[in-house]
ATP-dependent RNA helicase
Amino acid sequence: MGTKMKSKTQAVKNKDNNKKAVGNGTNKEYNGVFVSCTFSSLGLHPTLCDQLRERMGFEGPTLVQAQAIPIVLSGRHALVNAATGTGKTIAYLAPIIHHLQSNEKRIERSDGTFALVLVPARELCLQVHEILQKLLHRFHWIVPGYIMGGESRSKEKARLRKGLTHWKQEREDGMGGIRQIICVGVSSIAEGRDGEAFGACSHRESQFWLGHVVSLTDTMQKHK
Ligand SMILES: Nc1ncnc2c1ncn2[C@@H]1O[C@H](COP(=O)(O)OP(=O)(O)OP(=O)(O)O)[C@@H](O)[C@H]1O
């Protein structure tokens, strides 16, 4: 990430909030949800765009992806609020992969964890992990993993010992060294704490917050 971290969170509210992207990935069937630009025009790496097309079957971005991806790529914090099923998962995963693969010196497992995604449910954790595995097919040096309650602790320990560049977990602990934090379903995670801040979201909407802990470029420089 070449830009300096800015302190303000950029709020992205999908104007077409009621329409869902759920489907087989064929853009033409979902007019109003998709925009006419391409993933590469948003600034994403060509290989990543290929993966989105070939592995996921996505020919172009949804509206929320087109609105959020350039903001996240620019290094700003973002709070994205849109109807469920509008494609928010790719809106935060694609920029993370873009940044992690963009360093001249490939990151290694021993460099530690760079990004953490906090999700409110086990099922979602597994879904996000599955998407990451597909998107990372041609970026084999970026290793995804997950930690969640009810799993074998020894397996989790073994995964952590080997090193995870990108991992998801259900709870917030052990965050040292992480540069990007994504909270999915912020209102459910924040419930009982400062949940009121997100009280304006209706039940048909969900949101994620993505924060840059420090500029990833600065971190990468240390490893050169
Ligand atoms: N660019 C795209 N082109 C075609 N289909 C897409 C695109 N982006 C996402 N989808 C599909 O849309 C569906 C919903 O995406 P996703 O789960 O990311 O939405 P979401 O906004 O994160 O939903 P939720 O708020 O429920 O977590 C999925 O089936 C996904 O494969």
Remarks:
- The chain has one domain: 9-223.
- The mean pLDDT is 73.
